[in-house]
Amino acid sequence: MFIKAASIFGSLIVLIALVITLLKAVIGFVGFLAFAVKVLIILVFLAVFAGIGIMIFRTWQDKKRHN
After folding, report:
1. Which 3 state secondary structure label does DSSP give 1?
2. pTM for this predicted structure
3. pLDDT tens-digit profile of 3-50?
4. How far is C-alpha 22 from the geometric centre of its chain's CA atoms?
5. 3-state SS class at 67
6. CA distance 22 to 3
7. Which one, of 39, 40, 43, 63, lies nearest residue 51 by Cα?
């Protein structure tokens, strides 16, 4: 009887520990995804800013050549 009771409570404790570990991993993954999205937004902003800068520089160079 003691072995049966220990196995039921033991399996319940292990199941709870696995759920807690899974939730920690999911929370960490969501945090990482939020950080990755922020970095991606910053990189896209920098790419757009650099593209505009290149277009302005090319326009300035073309005006300089034609004058």
Report:
1. coil
2. 0.61
3. 565 677 788 888 999 999 999 999 999 999 999 999 999 999 999 999
4. 18
5. coil
6. 28
7. 43
Alpha-carbon span 5 to 2, nearest angstrom: 5
Cα(30)–Cα(27) distance, rounded to whole angstroms?
5
Residue 58 exposure: Cα atoms within 13 Å on the Cβ side: 6
Amino acid 2: pLDDT: 52
Structural tokens at position 41: 């937004």
**Degrees, nearest 5: CA angle 35-38-40:** 110
Extract the tokens encoding 35.
Answer: 């950080």
